[in-house]
Specification:
alpha+beta, 304 residues, two-stranded antiparallel sheet
């Protein structure tokens, strides 16, 4: 709570107490201080197991239920304090609900070679308040048809904030012709942020790739492309799996004898059906794609 907001609340409390004092039934010494005490007691909370309990108001009810002198205004002050306690409960919930409310951005149906991931990311970040310079990848999933039609783009990015980290989720579905953008607050610690790939760089690299060549081992009507390890550069050494270096304009196979390699890991698998709502069909015959590759301890060419 900012200093200004605190001052406004204190001023409001003082005004309420003075109004209650004017409604007193009979003169009483130190009534203003007593009303302030009733209000503070009514608002006093006990934090236990992460929850705030209205201990002060319960004590007021037990100790002062038979108040006689100016009892009505004292009860009114205590109830006002209790309402302040309720505001502590309701306000964060309401503020968080508003913060996490989804918004929709119109996007036309597009083919894979026309989608423009970097341009779409600029649209999302610019309209949603995401700091594109510091946002980093958390997850990414792309589903497209064998004809190149983009069926779904689903990804999450994380950025730091004053209170910790914020997770943004972007979900584009072909049928909706729009992307929904939602956000939620994370804790103050998000260890994978430091190693995750910058979102802007990732989408630029996607635009550089010929994604139509990405396919699982076999023919399927739909393909799903997934980013692993938050886009962090990893040491890849999975044998007995189809794997390729993917770069601008094409791809090159990686042999098991060339492992391990260093780079960013994408995988593609095949889908027999894609529903507008609900889960996909099982994802079969995965193939792996590594970009920004460096062959470790090898004389192989470095691919951009």
């Amino acid at each position: 709570m900012t200093t200004l907001l605190t001052l406004i609340v204190l001023a409001g409390i003082l005004v309420v107490v003075l109004l209650f004092r004017r409604r007193r039934m009979e003169p009483e010494s130190f009534l203003t201080l007593k009303l302030i005490g009733c209000l503070v007691l009514g608002a006093f909370t006990l934090t236990w197991s992460g929850e705030k309990w209205p201990l002060g108001f319960v004590l007021f009810v037990l100790l002062f239920i038979r108040l006689k002198r100016n009892g009505s205004v004292k009860w009114a002050a205590a109830i006002t304090g209790f309402m302040l306690y309720m505001a502590q409960i309701v306000y964060p919930w309401a503020e968080n609900a508003v913060f996490e409310q989804s918004r929709h951005l119109a996007m036309p149906v597009m083919q894979l070679d026309m989608f423009g991931f970097a341009a779409q990311w600029k649209l999302v970040s610019g309209s949603s308040g995401v700091s594109s310079d510091v946002a980093r990848m958390e997850t990414f999933e792309l589903v497209f048809g064998h004809d190149g039609s983009v069926r779904r783009v689903l990804y999450e990015v994380v950025e730091p904030s004053q209170d910790g980290f914020v997770l943004y989720k972007v979900d584009y579905k072909e049928g909706a012709k729009a992307a929904s953008v939602s956000r939620k607050r994370l804790g103050s610690q998000w260890l994978q942020y430091a190693n995750a790939m910058e979102a802007g760089y990732f989408f630029e690299r996607l635009d550089d790739m010929e994604l139509s060549v990405v396919r699982p081992a076999g023919e399927y009507p739909f393909r799903k492309l997934t980013l692993h390890e938050n886009g962090a550069s990893i040491t890849y050494s999975i044998a007995d799996t189809p794997k390729f270096v993917i770069y601008y304009g094409g791809m090159t196979a990686i042999r098991d004898t060339q492992l391990p390699v260093q780079g960013h890991w994408l995988s593609a698998c095949g889908l027999t059906a894609v529903e507008r709502e609900g889960p996909y069909s099982p994802c079969d015959n995965r193939s792996d794609y590594i970009f920004d590759v460096e062959f470790i301890g090898s004389e192989e060419e470095y691919f951009e």
